[in-house]
Amino acid sequence: MGHAFGTAEVLDSLRHVIQCPACGGALEGDGPLVCTDCGAQYGFTDTGNLDLRLGEPKQVHVDLVVGEMRQAPYEFSVGQRARPVGAVIPPEVVPASFGPLLDSYVPPAPTPDAIAVDIGCGPELGRRMLEAAGWNYVGLDIEHPDCPLFGDVHAMPFRDDSIGLVLAAATVEEWAYRLVGLKEVRRVLTPGGHFIGTTGFLLPDCGDQHRSTVRGLANLFGDAGLTAPKIMAAPGYTGYDAISEIAGFPRAFRLGKAVAWLPKSASRAWWGVGRLLDQRSSSETWHRRIGGAWTFVSRAPES
Ligand SMILES: [Zn+2]
Predict the structure, then answer these.
(1) How far is the CA of 95 from the centre of ligand 1 (A)?
(2) Residue 6 predicted with pLDDT over 70
(3) How confident is the model over 56-96, as pLDDT tens digits?
(4) How far apart are the CA of 188 and the centre of ligand 1, in A?
(5) Strands 115-119 and 136-140, how do they pair?
(6) Distance from the alpha carbon of residue 197 to the mean position of ligand 1, in angstroms
(7) pLDDT, position 5
Protein backbone atom coordinates (compact mmCIF):
# COMPACT_ATOMS: atom_id res chain seq x y z
CA MET A 1 0.00 0.00 0.00
CA GLY A 2 1.43 3.33 -1.06
CA HIS A 3 2.15 5.93 1.56
CA ALA A 4 2.45 9.47 0.25
CA PHE A 5 4.69 11.56 2.46
CA GLY A 6 4.97 15.30 2.04
CA THR A 7 8.35 14.80 0.44
CA ALA A 8 9.36 18.46 0.37
CA GLU A 9 8.32 18.85 3.99
CA VAL A 10 10.40 15.92 5.16
CA LEU A 11 13.41 17.17 3.26
CA ASP A 12 13.04 20.76 4.49
CA SER A 13 12.86 19.68 8.11
CA LEU A 14 16.01 17.59 7.76
CA ARG A 15 18.15 19.66 5.44
CA HIS A 16 20.31 21.21 8.17
CA VAL A 17 21.31 17.84 9.66
CA ILE A 18 21.69 15.44 6.74
CA GLN A 19 24.86 14.57 4.88
CA CYS A 20 26.04 12.08 2.30
CA PRO A 21 26.15 8.63 3.96
CA ALA A 22 28.95 7.54 1.64
CA CYS A 23 31.47 10.34 2.25
CA GLY A 24 30.02 12.84 4.72
CA GLY A 25 29.75 15.58 2.08
CA ALA A 26 27.02 18.20 1.85
CA LEU A 27 23.83 17.41 -0.08
CA GLU A 28 22.36 19.97 -2.46
CA GLY A 29 19.22 20.04 -4.59
CA ASP A 30 15.62 18.97 -4.10
CA GLY A 31 15.57 15.40 -5.36
CA PRO A 32 17.71 14.18 -6.59
CA LEU A 33 19.98 15.38 -3.84
CA VAL A 34 23.57 15.50 -5.04
CA CYS A 35 26.66 15.17 -2.84
CA THR A 36 28.97 18.13 -3.44
CA ASP A 37 32.02 15.97 -2.60
CA CYS A 38 31.55 12.53 -4.19
CA GLY A 39 28.70 13.22 -6.61
CA ALA A 40 26.47 10.46 -5.24
CA GLN A 41 22.77 11.07 -5.83
CA TYR A 42 19.85 10.43 -3.50
CA GLY A 43 16.12 10.68 -4.10
CA PHE A 44 12.74 9.39 -3.09
CA THR A 45 11.34 5.87 -3.30
CA ASP A 46 8.12 5.05 -5.14
CA THR A 47 6.28 5.28 -1.83
CA GLY A 48 7.71 8.73 -1.11
CA ASN A 49 10.38 7.82 1.43
CA LEU A 50 13.48 10.01 1.35
CA ASP A 51 16.16 7.44 0.56
CA LEU A 52 19.54 8.24 2.12
CA ARG A 53 20.82 4.68 2.16
CA LEU A 54 24.19 3.91 0.64
CA GLY A 55 23.98 3.60 -3.11
CA GLU A 56 26.72 1.00 -3.05
CA PRO A 57 28.62 -0.87 -0.30
CA LYS A 58 31.27 1.06 1.55
CA GLN A 59 34.50 -0.11 3.21
CA VAL A 60 34.62 0.73 6.93
CA HIS A 61 37.68 0.54 9.17
CA VAL A 62 37.41 -0.02 12.92
CA ASP A 63 40.50 0.27 15.13
CA LEU A 64 40.57 -1.94 18.19
CA VAL A 65 43.23 -2.67 20.80
CA VAL A 66 43.90 -6.29 21.74
CA GLY A 67 46.14 -7.74 24.44
CA GLU A 68 44.55 -6.12 27.45
CA MET A 69 41.56 -7.01 29.62
CA ARG A 70 38.38 -5.74 28.07
CA GLN A 71 36.48 -4.44 31.08
CA ALA A 72 34.60 -1.28 30.22
CA PRO A 73 32.79 0.23 33.21
CA TYR A 74 29.02 0.10 33.65
CA GLU A 75 26.30 0.07 36.28
CA PHE A 76 23.81 -2.77 36.45
CA SER A 77 20.58 -2.73 38.38
CA VAL A 78 17.14 -4.24 38.45
CA GLY A 79 15.45 -1.31 36.89
CA GLN A 80 14.18 1.55 38.85
CA ARG A 81 12.31 4.09 36.80
CA ALA A 82 14.03 7.47 36.68
CA ARG A 83 10.71 9.19 37.32
CA PRO A 84 7.13 8.11 38.03
CA VAL A 85 4.84 6.94 35.25
CA GLY A 86 3.34 9.93 33.46
CA ALA A 87 5.63 12.55 35.04
CA VAL A 88 6.85 13.86 31.66
CA ILE A 89 5.44 11.45 29.09
CA PRO A 90 1.81 10.24 29.21
CA PRO A 91 1.77 6.44 29.50
CA GLU A 92 -0.62 6.07 26.56
CA VAL A 93 2.03 7.29 24.07
CA VAL A 94 4.61 4.69 25.17
CA PRO A 95 4.52 1.48 23.09
CA ALA A 96 4.28 -1.62 25.29
CA SER A 97 7.22 -3.11 23.38
CA PHE A 98 9.51 -0.46 24.91
CA GLY A 99 9.15 -2.15 28.31
CA PRO A 100 8.39 -0.61 31.70
CA LEU A 101 11.53 1.53 32.11
CA LEU A 102 12.63 3.21 28.89
CA ASP A 103 10.25 6.18 28.79
CA SER A 104 11.39 7.33 32.22
CA TYR A 105 14.92 7.82 30.84
CA VAL A 106 13.90 10.06 27.92
CA PRO A 107 15.40 13.45 28.82
CA PRO A 108 13.35 16.58 28.13
CA ALA A 109 14.60 18.33 24.98
CA PRO A 110 17.17 20.97 25.98
CA THR A 111 16.20 23.45 23.24
CA PRO A 112 13.17 23.90 20.93
CA ASP A 113 15.20 22.82 17.89
CA ALA A 114 16.82 19.73 19.47
CA ILE A 115 16.52 16.58 17.36
CA ALA A 116 15.93 13.00 18.44
CA VAL A 117 16.57 10.12 16.02
CA ASP A 118 14.66 6.85 16.43
CA ILE A 119 16.78 4.13 14.79
CA GLY A 120 14.93 1.16 13.36
CA CYS A 121 11.71 3.05 14.02
CA GLY A 122 9.41 0.93 11.84
CA PRO A 123 6.11 2.87 11.65
CA GLU A 124 7.65 5.71 13.69
CA LEU A 125 7.02 3.80 16.91
CA GLY A 126 8.81 6.28 19.16
CA ARG A 127 7.34 9.47 17.68
CA ARG A 128 4.64 10.31 20.21
CA MET A 129 6.86 9.42 23.18
CA LEU A 130 9.75 11.63 22.05
CA GLU A 131 7.54 14.50 20.94
CA ALA A 132 5.89 14.46 24.37
CA ALA A 133 9.33 15.26 25.83
CA GLY A 134 9.76 18.19 23.42
CA TRP A 135 12.02 16.61 20.80
CA ASN A 136 11.86 17.15 17.06
CA TYR A 137 11.37 13.60 15.92
CA VAL A 138 13.26 11.93 13.08
CA GLY A 139 12.59 8.25 12.44
CA LEU A 140 15.22 6.29 10.54
CA ASP A 141 14.64 2.83 9.12
CA ILE A 142 16.43 0.67 6.58
CA GLU A 143 13.26 -0.18 4.66
CA HIS A 144 10.00 0.13 6.59
CA PRO A 145 7.57 1.83 4.18
CA ASP A 146 5.88 3.80 6.97
CA CYS A 147 9.11 5.57 7.88
CA PRO A 148 9.64 8.78 5.84
CA LEU A 149 13.45 8.49 5.97
CA PHE A 150 15.41 5.46 4.84
CA GLY A 151 18.98 5.14 6.10
CA ASP A 152 21.52 2.64 7.38
CA VAL A 153 22.79 2.81 10.95
CA HIS A 154 26.23 1.74 9.69
CA ALA A 155 26.47 4.91 7.58
CA MET A 156 24.02 7.35 9.06
CA PRO A 157 23.03 10.31 6.89
CA PHE A 158 23.46 12.82 9.74
CA ARG A 159 26.21 15.33 10.42
CA ASP A 160 28.66 15.00 13.31
CA ASP A 161 27.42 16.40 16.65
CA SER A 162 23.93 17.14 15.30
CA ILE A 163 21.57 14.87 17.28
CA GLY A 164 20.67 15.38 20.94
CA LEU A 165 19.06 12.00 21.56
CA VAL A 166 19.28 8.64 19.83
CA LEU A 167 16.67 6.01 20.62
CA ALA A 168 17.35 2.38 19.68
CA ALA A 169 14.45 0.19 20.85
CA ALA A 170 14.98 -3.51 20.12
CA THR A 171 17.17 -2.81 17.12
CA VAL A 172 20.85 -3.11 18.12
CA GLU A 173 20.48 -6.91 17.96
CA GLU A 174 19.55 -6.60 14.29
CA TRP A 175 22.58 -4.58 13.15
CA ALA A 176 25.06 -6.55 11.09
CA TYR A 177 28.03 -4.83 12.76
CA ARG A 178 27.00 -3.45 16.11
CA LEU A 179 30.30 -1.69 16.82
CA VAL A 180 30.13 0.18 13.52
CA GLY A 181 26.56 1.27 14.29
CA LEU A 182 27.41 2.32 17.84
CA LYS A 183 30.38 4.37 16.58
CA GLU A 184 27.99 6.09 14.20
CA VAL A 185 25.66 6.84 17.13
CA ARG A 186 28.63 8.35 18.97
CA ARG A 187 29.58 10.42 15.92
CA VAL A 188 26.17 11.98 15.31
CA LEU A 189 25.42 12.73 18.97
CA THR A 190 26.07 16.21 20.31
CA PRO A 191 28.65 16.30 23.15
CA GLY A 192 26.81 14.88 26.15
CA GLY A 193 23.96 13.74 23.90
CA HIS A 194 21.84 10.83 25.10
CA PHE A 195 21.66 7.28 23.81
CA ILE A 196 18.86 5.10 25.20
CA GLY A 197 17.25 1.87 24.15
CA THR A 198 16.54 -1.77 24.76
CA THR A 199 18.12 -4.99 23.55
CA GLY A 200 17.38 -8.65 24.11
CA PHE A 201 19.42 -11.07 26.21
CA LEU A 202 17.73 -14.46 26.82
CA LEU A 203 15.35 -14.23 23.91
CA PRO A 204 14.63 -16.91 21.33
CA ASP A 205 15.79 -16.49 17.75
CA CYS A 206 13.59 -13.72 16.40
CA GLY A 207 15.36 -13.52 13.06
CA ASP A 208 17.93 -11.08 14.42
CA GLN A 209 21.63 -11.63 14.96
CA HIS A 210 23.03 -10.78 18.38
CA ARG A 211 22.56 -11.22 22.10
CA SER A 212 24.75 -9.66 24.76
CA THR A 213 25.48 -10.29 28.39
CA VAL A 214 25.69 -7.17 30.54
CA ARG A 215 29.47 -7.36 30.32
CA GLY A 216 29.43 -7.77 26.56
CA LEU A 217 27.09 -4.85 26.05
CA ALA A 218 29.18 -2.60 28.29
CA ASN A 219 32.32 -3.50 26.34
CA LEU A 220 30.64 -2.68 23.05
CA PHE A 221 29.65 0.74 24.37
CA GLY A 222 33.20 1.28 25.63
CA ASP A 223 34.69 0.26 22.28
CA ALA A 224 32.40 2.78 20.57
CA GLY A 225 33.52 5.64 22.82
CA LEU A 226 30.20 6.02 24.59
CA THR A 227 30.08 6.67 28.34
CA ALA A 228 29.72 3.83 30.84
CA PRO A 229 26.14 2.66 30.38
CA LYS A 230 23.51 2.04 32.98
CA ILE A 231 22.10 -1.36 32.08
CA MET A 232 18.85 -2.40 33.67
CA ALA A 233 16.73 -5.52 33.82
CA ALA A 234 12.97 -5.08 34.01
CA PRO A 235 11.91 -6.56 37.36
CA GLY A 236 10.74 -10.14 36.97
CA TYR A 237 11.18 -10.32 33.18
CA THR A 238 13.38 -13.35 32.63
CA GLY A 239 14.46 -15.68 29.89
CA TYR A 240 11.81 -18.10 31.14
CA ASP A 241 9.15 -15.52 30.29
CA ALA A 242 10.71 -14.39 27.02
CA ILE A 243 11.36 -17.80 25.55
CA SER A 244 8.03 -19.25 26.63
CA GLU A 245 5.95 -16.26 25.49
CA ILE A 246 7.70 -15.63 22.19
CA ALA A 247 8.80 -19.06 20.94
CA GLY A 248 7.59 -21.77 23.29
CA PHE A 249 3.92 -21.06 22.73
CA PRO A 250 3.58 -18.80 19.72
CA ARG A 251 0.19 -17.10 19.34
CA ALA A 252 -0.68 -18.16 22.89
CA PHE A 253 0.95 -15.39 24.94
CA ARG A 254 -1.05 -16.05 28.10
CA LEU A 255 -0.36 -19.76 27.98
CA GLY A 256 3.36 -19.06 27.52
CA LYS A 257 3.33 -16.70 30.46
CA ALA A 258 1.52 -19.23 32.61
CA VAL A 259 3.91 -22.06 31.71
CA ALA A 260 6.91 -19.88 32.53
CA TRP A 261 5.52 -19.00 35.92
CA LEU A 262 6.45 -22.27 37.63
CA PRO A 263 10.17 -22.51 36.78
CA LYS A 264 10.58 -18.79 37.29
CA SER A 265 8.91 -18.78 40.67
CA ALA A 266 10.73 -21.92 41.77
CA SER A 267 14.06 -20.39 40.78
CA ARG A 268 13.28 -17.13 42.52
CA ALA A 269 12.34 -19.00 45.68
CA TRP A 270 15.51 -21.08 45.50
CA TRP A 271 17.59 -17.94 45.19
CA GLY A 272 15.65 -16.49 48.12
CA VAL A 273 16.85 -19.39 50.23
CA GLY A 274 20.37 -18.85 48.95
CA ARG A 275 20.19 -15.20 49.91
CA LEU A 276 19.72 -16.18 53.55
CA LEU A 277 23.05 -17.99 53.39
CA ASP A 278 25.02 -15.74 51.07
CA GLN A 279 24.47 -12.03 50.45
CA ARG A 280 26.00 -12.36 46.97
CA SER A 281 22.95 -14.32 45.83
CA SER A 282 21.17 -11.08 45.18
CA SER A 283 18.17 -10.27 43.07
CA GLU A 284 20.60 -8.31 40.83
CA THR A 285 22.66 -11.43 40.20
CA TRP A 286 19.57 -13.49 39.45
CA HIS A 287 18.29 -10.95 36.94
CA ARG A 288 21.72 -10.48 35.42
CA ARG A 289 22.03 -14.21 34.76
CA ILE A 290 18.56 -14.88 33.40
CA GLY A 291 17.23 -11.49 32.33
CA GLY A 292 15.07 -11.47 29.19
CA ALA A 293 16.13 -8.05 27.95
CA TRP A 294 18.11 -4.98 28.94
CA THR A 295 17.25 -1.32 28.96
CA PHE A 296 20.34 0.85 28.50
CA VAL A 297 21.16 4.50 29.06
CA SER A 298 24.41 6.08 27.90
CA ARG A 299 25.75 9.34 26.49
CA ALA A 300 28.34 10.76 24.18
CA PRO A 301 31.29 12.20 26.12
CA GLU A 302 31.05 15.92 26.94
CA SER A 303 34.09 16.75 24.82
ZN1 LIG B 1 29.35 11.96 -0.91
Answers:
(1) 36
(2) no
(3) 999 999 999 999 999 999 999 999 999 999 999 999 999 99
(4) 17
(5) parallel
(6) 30
(7) 62
CA proximity to 110, closest of 192, 197, 206, 183: 192
pTM score, two decimals?
0.95
What distance in Å separates the CA atoms of residue 286 and residue 77, rounded to the nearest whole number? 11
State how far the Cα of 282 lies from the Cα of 185, in Å rounded to an integer.
34
Residues, CB-to-ion distance under 5 Å, ligand 1? 20, 22-23, 25, 35, 37-38, 40
Residue 265 neighbours by CB under 8 Å, 6+ apart: none
Distance 303 CA to ligand 1 centre (A): 27
Please say whether the beta carbons of 218 and 72 come within 8 A: yes
The angle subtended at Cα 107 by Cα 19 and Cα 184, nearest 5°, is 30
CA of 176 to the centre of ligand 1 (A): 22
Distance of CA 280 to the CA centre of its chain: 31
127: enclosing H helix or E strand: helix 127-132
Q: At what angle do helices 253-277 and 283-290 cross, to 10 degrees?
A: 140
> Which among 193, 197, 177, 56 is positioned nearest to 119, based on CA atoms?
197
